[in-house]
Description:
Blueprint: H1 4-27, E1 39-43, H2 48-57, E2 72-76, H3 80-93
Antiparallel strand pairs: 1-2
Amino acid sequence: xxxxxYQAMCKQRNLEGRAIMETALKxxxxxxxxxxxxxxxxxxxxxxxxVQAKMLxxxxxxxxxxxxxxxxxxxxxxxxxxxxxxxAALPAALSAT
Length: 97
């Protein structure tokens, strides 16, 4: 609790990771909620289960459904490098095919 330098580093990484996701989602034209947390919540346009399966095939786990938002997806923020990988996998996961 007293390691404020570590806390600051974690907050900065979280900001960077969230910015990577927000930039990628905006580029794909996806709606998302405003986030000040360690996750993003966005409109996938597909059932969560389909996005989960596609992301799992790419090596990533994404959050469960939050009824009634069954076509919205929650992605927890990891390191900036991890978020760049997730962002790169999203276009294929969000395609209708």
